[in-house]
Amino acid sequence: MQSTLTATTDYRPGLEDRDWSFKGATTDYGTHDLHKYPARMIPQIPDALFEHWTHTGTLSEGDLVFDPFSGSGTTAAEARRHGLNAIATDINPFACLLSRTKSTVPDLDTLESAIRQCLGTDWATREQFIEENYQSAASQHRTKHGGDIYTEDSGDQNYNAYGVRKGWFPEPQLAKITAMSRQLSELRAEYDHEVIRFIRIALAQAARNISYQRDSEFKRHRIPEADRESHDPKFTETFIETLRENFYGLVDYATQVSDETTATIKYADCRDTSVLAPDSADAVVSSPPYGDHSTTVAYGGFSTDPAAVATPLKLDQMTDVDPSGLGGSKTTSDIEFATVSEWSPTLRATVDALKDVDGRDDDVLHFFADYAETLEQMARVVKPGQPVAIVLGNRTVSRVPIPMNVITIEIAQQFQLDLEHSLPRSIPSKTLPYENAPENIPGQTGGLIADEYVLIFRAGQ
Ligand SMILES: C[S@@+](CC[C@H](N)C(=O)[O-])C[C@H]1O[C@@H](n2cnc3c(N)ncnc32)[C@H](O)[C@@H]1O
């Protein structure tokens, strides 16, 4: 009787026995919802993997996990919750700031006093000053959309003086957001960067909530023009609410991580071999982009306004992100198109089908040649015999399906990454269009991702 009870308590489902869809799971616990970065991986995936691997002895406390595509930092944050160290890369400097914030716990008392100070009497005076002066400035310069009121330009006619695209924010809220950002720069003299960075991420999310950008669509869209005049959210209240929620999330996270572990986030192309020595990571857990940023998810485009209004990041750093993503106009690979399509018969067949449709075959080959290099990098840095988990979905290009899961498995073989599990998951809550229809009509979508896969490989011995 006793042994049966023990066996029941100890029972843990194997990787194949779990439901990887995690329907109904709460995904915003701890620091996971500090900012709504696009295409975040649900934390339950790294959580389940780390739980399984630490329980089965594949990973031990203090081991190192690598995430080449950090995004918001889900893998790094979860690794620390499981007593593991993390290293991650991203070519988006805003994603790097967010990942660091999500996986670091600043001193909570100091953070609380910085929050009090940035919303104290000085702020009330500044806010009132903006309100009064804006009213007089606005009466002279006001045009239909808030962003157009600026007389002074940043040089590019599409951007206003704050370095954000015109017409995406109401006024005077934009002036208040950027004034708060300046105040945070001043507070930097008194508080360390982790404290100020935490507040900046909340400011970036509050700015997103205040902007004209609509929720629930993947491409950037605004609320209808007719509704913009009446869109008048209160800056200070929105910011305080976001800060409060983020702070509670951090307090929750703080109880779950130990000072013994660290997360290192590098602003780098994940293919850069100086990022990590060969055979140095104990596991890889990552979700790569599904295609070049310009036809799938514009991570840079989504991050540019939050970065411009809430952080000291430069506009040109941000506009560089999308062309520098895999398959982007600024990237090249040492792996030839012919080589990658030789490695993957499925890629070759896909490209042939595309050739017949509309000649986008080279775009797809470009993406997969870059992507193959990232698989090579994962295989290079992971220790022999250790796991590599890749979460991905399939998309369509010009309505031709791109079976990225099969292509990944075929290319990975070249680097002695042997498939152990292909775990399908359905994502009913994800209504996000991964590619605009070929007609490129905003809001209309081509293929939707119906499924994702968690592919688990073992590195060759
Ligand atoms: C699907 S998102 C990752 C989401 C992440 N798992 C999360 O939970 O937030 C893919 C990320 O890859 C980044 N990226 C694209 N090309 C890259 C490259 N060559 N090196 C590093 N990061 C890259 C993008 O900027 C984006 O943040």
UniProtKB/TrEMBL annotation:
InterPro entries recorded: DNA_methylase_N4/N6 (IPR002941), SAM-dependent_MTases_sf (IPR029063)
UniProt KW keywords: Methyltransferase, Transferase
Record's protein name: DNA methyltransferase
Matches recorded under SUPFAM superfamilies: S-adenosyl-L-methionine-dependent methyltransferases
Record GO terms (molecular function): methyltransferase activity
Pfam families hit by this protein: N6_N4_Mtase (PF01555)
GO biological process: methylation
Keyword DNA repair: no
Keyword presence, Ribonucleoprotein: no
The DNA methylase N-4/N-6 domain, residue ranges: 37-97
